[in-house]
Predict the structure.
Amino acid sequence: MTLPAFSPTGIRFENIDKRYGGLYALRRVSLEIAAGECAVFAGRNGSGKTTLLRIAAGLARPSAGAVSFLKSSGESDGTPSPAGFVAHATMVYDELTAEENLVLFARLQGVAEHAARADALLREVGLAERRNSLVRTFSRGMRQRVAIARALLNEPAVVLLDEPTTGLDPQGASWFAQTLRRLRDSGRTILISLHGESEVSSLATRAIRLDAGAVVADTRTGANFRSILAFANA
Amino acid sequence: MALLSNTAVLLGKELRTEFRSRELLTTTVVFILTIVVLFSFTFDPSVSESRRFGPGLLWLAFLFAASLMLQPCFLREQNNDTLSALRLSVNDPFAIFLAKLAANTLFLLFTQVLLLPVFSILYNVPVLAAFPQLVLVMFMGSLGLSVTGTALSAISAQARMRELLLPLLLLPLLTPVLIASTEATAALLVPNPAMRWDWMGFLLAFDVVFLTALWLFGEYLLEE
């Protein structure tokens, strides 16, 4: 996959709290993910992984604290989220074709030459021949490919992946791991929450474990790194 | 400019998905037809009775049809979490509301214009003499139904008991629109039709107030 140029960008979470009524989904989360890191978030269901990624994407507002995106100089660039987001749900329309979905979101994002960009991404995710098929006729794996193409439309410097291989067959998961490797090697910052994907988690350069909304382990190397990844694969 | 171009793109999407699935239009047209035909055969009204009760019947049917149409407006954005994708893609979330509002108004107006000749034949009330004015009244009334309904649809889509919540919130809020629309329509179905600009002004004011509120607070309605 030939990925276009972008400005390396890190992400900083400062004392993030997220409450739903009296329930804390996140509690004083402070992290700085450097540009180019591939950070895996592990933790049980309800530990706050999805909430943290949705806050980073700009879809949820923290109850306290702030998220900022950092240029290579370390300064906050002050822009809204420059991240591409892939969630559990595909976030594409079943009643539109793969190409119509990508062109729609490219036009909304103001992507120049949106048709060409959609065409290039459809080729890269291996759906060029099904470009005119409605998404509702696709398998789960094919839908996920459209979802990934949608997330990459505006050439994001940060890619947020929330359990992206859920529902993929082994072949689909393998394709996804290759795509993730190329994204990581291109220097993009990747935050990924995982639930049992060994091939994907082996690409991580940093492992962070959340429990009850708090960061309980954060490491780049050593035995703890492997134990956190092992937890992600549990 | 970005707001308008995003609205146009999203309106195109709304129209394309509806004309592919025909979910909303089919439901509302069948629903309104059933009511109009059923009342016609049940009461067999005279011309003068039709002129007295017809406008109220029409707008009541439009109201229930609108509540059917507005319910899935934001609900179907939740199937694949496409609402999140839209929020991530547009600079101004008001574009999402504007597109849905425009689509709902168009669908409702289309249904109404389709139903007017049926109403005219079944109730023996001529509508051709004031047809353009009737379309204007229906446009203003539909805009009122849609602007309120689109906002409430966004609220109810995130709530539990959402099927119950939308009609509960919608019906009391829309009472002024229904009264104004019914009065304006009634004045156009009499032998010497005349436009009631006082009620039209009221509808315009209602539409402007609710549209402004949507513009100011719409972003918060979409937040998680």
About this structure: The mean pLDDT of chain B is 89. Residues 2-222 of chain B form one domain. The radius of gyration of chain B is 18 Å.
